[in-house]
C-alpha cells in the first residue's frame, strides 16, 4: 500500500526552511569572519570564510564571469524539474524528502550567486596537517550531497522492492 501523499506545499515549505538555515549560516560567517579567516574547531575541521565563483571544487572559478550565469540558469532549470518530480511522486516520501534537500541546496547557492556573484563557503575538513584537504563547502552543498545520496540509496535498496509491490 503506498504512503499517503503529503501536500505539495509541505515539500516546498520544507525546502524553504532548509534554504533559510543555509542563508542564515552564510550570513553568520559573512558578518563574523574576515575573508580567509580560519577558526580551528577540531584537529581536522575549521571554520573559514571563502568565496567560490565556480561549481563544486571551484570548477570553472576562473572562467571569466560567464559561469555565474550558467550555474544560475542550470540550478533554476534543475529546480524546475525537481518541482515537477515533487508533484509527480507525492506518495514517495523518501524520494520527495531527498528532492527537497537538493532543491534547497540548489536554490541556496543560486541566492548567493545572484546576490554576491559567488557562493559563500565556510566548512573546511583536512587531515595530516593540511597535507590533504577537502575544498570548503556550505550547508547548501551538504543538502545536495545528502539528497543525492538518499536517491542513490533508494534506487539501490528500495526500487526493486517497489517494483515487486506494484507487480
Automatic annotation (TrEMBL):
Catalytic function, reaction form: Release of signal peptides from bacterial membrane prolipoproteins. Hydrolyzes -Xaa-Yaa-Zaa-|-(S,diacylglyceryl)Cys-, in which Xaa is hydrophobic (preferably Leu), and Yaa (Ala or Ser) and Zaa (Gly or Ala) have small, neutral side chains
Gene Ontology cellular-component annotations: plasma membrane
Catalytic residues as annotated in Swiss-Prot or TrEMBL: 121, 141
GO biological process: proteolysis
Keyword annotations of the record: Aspartyl protease, Cell membrane, Hydrolase, Membrane, Protease, Transmembrane, Transmembrane helix
Regions crossing the membrane: 12-29, 66-86, 93-111, 131-153
Entry EC number(s): 3.4.23.36
MF term (GO), any: aspartic-type endopeptidase activity
Keyword Aminoacyl-tRNA synthetase: no
Mode of membrane association: Multi-pass membrane protein
Listed InterPro entries: Peptidase_A8
Keyword Transmembrane helix on entry: yes
Subcellular location: Cell membrane
Pathway: Protein modification; lipoprotein biosynthesis (signal peptide cleavage)
Task of the protein: This protein specifically catalyzes the removal of signal peptides from prolipoproteins.
PANTHER family, A to Z: LIPOPROTEIN SIGNAL PEPTIDASE (PTHR33695:SF1)
NCBIfam families assigned to the protein according to its UniProt record, in alphabetical order: lspA
Family from the record: Belongs to the peptidase A8 family.
Protein name per UniProt: Lipoprotein signal peptidase
Amino acid at each position: 500500500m503506498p504512503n499517503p501523499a503529503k501536500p505539495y506545499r509541505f515539500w516546498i515549505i520544507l525546502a524553504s526552511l532548509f534554504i533559510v538555515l543555509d542563508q542564515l549560516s552564510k550570513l553568520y560567517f559573512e558578518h563574523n569572519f574576515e575573508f580567509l579567516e580560519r577558526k580551528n574547531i577540531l584537529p581536522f575541521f575549521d571554520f573559514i570564510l571563502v568565496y567560490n565563483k565556480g561549481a563544486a571544487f571551484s570548477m570553472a572559478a576562473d572562467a571569466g564571469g560567464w559561469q555565474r550565469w550558467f550555474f544560475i540558469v542550470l540550478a533554476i532549470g534543475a529546480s524546475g524539474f525537481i518541482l515537477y518530480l515533487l508533484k509527480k511522486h507525492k506518495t514517495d516520501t523518501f524520494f520527495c524528502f531527498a528532492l527537497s534537500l537538493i532543491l534547497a541546496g540548489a536554490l541556496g547557492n543560486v541566492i548567493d550567486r545572484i546576490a554576491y556573484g559567488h557562493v559563500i563557503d565556510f566548512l573546511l575538513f583536512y587531515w595530516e596537517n593540511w597535507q590533504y584537504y577537502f575544498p570548503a563547502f556550505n550547508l547548501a552543498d551538504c543538502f545536495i550531497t545528502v539528497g543525492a545520496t538518499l536517491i542513490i540509496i533508494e534506487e539501490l535498496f528500495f526500487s526493486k522492492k517497489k517494483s515487486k509491490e506494484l507487480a
